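Reminder to self: tokens first, then the designed residues, so the page reads top to bottom the way the pipeline ran.
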């Protein structure tokens, strides 16, 4: 696999991994805050166990195969999520795609925390709910929302966010008994960190929305 505009390693389609036990806890557990006195986040919150995570990580973090998850919207905008399994420089790269532009542009990374700008909740939902049916990639809106969740970049989310996130977690395997708590902890971690105030100006050429005109190369 090749991604125009991204100089990476041995890329491979990662979407088949979305249904593997251990995927969502691996992708999302690091977003949960570990406040003093609070319960330590564990894979069981997502319906997984340690064995699931260990087995999945052997595949997800294989330096010989970098999984790619494509979250493209019907209008040509979207995000490509790349597990950068470069030995000594592991992380997750987030690439933006734009309508009418063949090249993707990297705009953020996840390396224990997000480096670079993210997206507001409304933009994450817009992309999640409008899959490009004529392009390869993740099409389930629940999985798409969770793939993009590490990009959430605003201090306050709308009232619809906790139930929407709870529904996405439940649909992808999180037990109904733990899904609301897991959703709250995820949102607490994401909204308590540094965020990009739109008043500071465009964050990466096109601002925090992907549907408009692409930034100049």
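Designed residues (217 positions):
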């Amino acid at each position: 696999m090749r991604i125009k505009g991204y100089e990476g390693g041995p890329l491979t389609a990662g979407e088949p991994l979305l249904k593997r036990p251990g995927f969502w806890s691996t992708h999302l557990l690091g977003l949960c805050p570990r406040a003093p006195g609070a319960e330590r986040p564990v894979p069981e919150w997502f319906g997984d166990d340690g064995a699931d995570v260990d087995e999945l990580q052997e595949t997800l973090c294989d330096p010989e195969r970098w999984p790619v998850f494509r979250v493209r919207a019907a209008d040509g905008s979207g995000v490509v999520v790349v597990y950068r399994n470069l030995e000594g420089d592991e992380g997750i790269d987030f690439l933006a795609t734009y309508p009418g532009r063949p090249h993707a542009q990297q705009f953020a990374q996840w390396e224990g925390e997000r480096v670079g700008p993210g997206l507001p909740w409304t933009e994450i939902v817009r992309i999640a709910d409008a899959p490009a049916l004529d392009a390869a990639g993740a099409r389930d809106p629940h999985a798409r929302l969770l793939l993009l969740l590490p990009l959430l970049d605003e201090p306050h989310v709308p009232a619809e966010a906790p139930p929407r996130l709870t529904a996405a977690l439940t649909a992808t395997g999180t037990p109904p008994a733990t899904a609301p708590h897991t959703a709250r902890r995820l949102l607490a971690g994401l909204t308590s960190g540094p965020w990009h105030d739109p008043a500071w100006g465009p964050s990466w050429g096109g601002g925090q929305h992907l549907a408009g005109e692409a930034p100049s190369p």
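The mean pLDDT is 87.
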